[in-house]
Amino acid sequence: MAHALSLGRRGLGRCWPNPAVGCVIVNQGRVVGRGWTQPGGRPHAEPVALAAAGTLARGATAYVTLEPCAHHGQTPPCAEALIAAGVSRVVAPLTDSDPRVAGKGFAMLRAAGVEVTTGVLADQAADDHAGFFLRVEQGRPWLTLKLAMSLDGRIATATGESQWITGPRSRRAVHGLRATHDAVLVGGGTARADDPSLTVRDLGVAQQPVRVVVSRFLDLPLMGNLARTAKDIPVWICHGPDASDQSQQAWKELGARLIPCQLDGGRVDPAAVLQALGEAGLTRVFCEGGGQLAASLLAADLVDELHVFTAGMALGAEGHPGLGALGVEHLNEAPRFEPVDLIPVGPDVRHVWRRVSQNRLV
Question: Is 279 assigned a catalytic role?
Answer without folding.
Answer: no
